[in-house]
Write a structure and sequence with these properties.
The protein is α/β, with parallel strands linked by helices. It has helices at residues 16-24, 42-52, 62-68, 86-99, 102-105, and strands spanning 7-10, 29-31, 54-58, 76-78, 109-111. It has a five-stranded parallel β-sheet, with helices on both faces. It is globular and about 30 Å long. It starts with 6 loop residues before the first strand and ends with a strand.
Length: 112
């Protein structure tokens, strides 16, 4: 059931190659430059992603703080900067996409 499949939004710290890798697998993804959100607050990123039902993928730990403070979101996937290769990140995101649903990711944080 495709409607249940999660969609991703990549914040501005994320390499474009990750979006390209996801798109090659036909996974719905937006990037910060594409939706003209460069330089906006993390709260604005979460609001954009929530409005579109998108899970935010980020290297920015500020999103984890927002989650702990109770900010509403459609899901966050966090990976510490430079702890994984682009290929490992794409593989992990594909794995999350395969097993999680938009419903199960709501207000949920995954770490890769």
């Amino acid at each position: 059931m495709m409607a249940d499949k999660i969609k991703f939004h990549l914040d501005e710290s994320v390499e474009r190659a990750i979006a390209d890798g996801l798109r090659r697998r036909e996974i719905d993804v937006t990037t910060t430059p594409e939706v003209e959100l460069m330089g906006v607050s993390d709260e604005e990123h979460l609001a954009f992603a929530l409005g579109q039902g998108r899970v935010v993928f980020t290297h920015d730990a500020d999103f984890l703080r927002l989650h702990r403070r109770g900010a509403e979101h459609a899901g966050i996937v966090y990976c510490h900067q430079q702890s994984r290769s682009i290929g490992e990140i794409v593989k992990s995101l594909v794995g999350i996409w395969e097993v999680q649903t938009s419903e199960s990711m709501c207000q949920h944080v995954e770490f890769i």
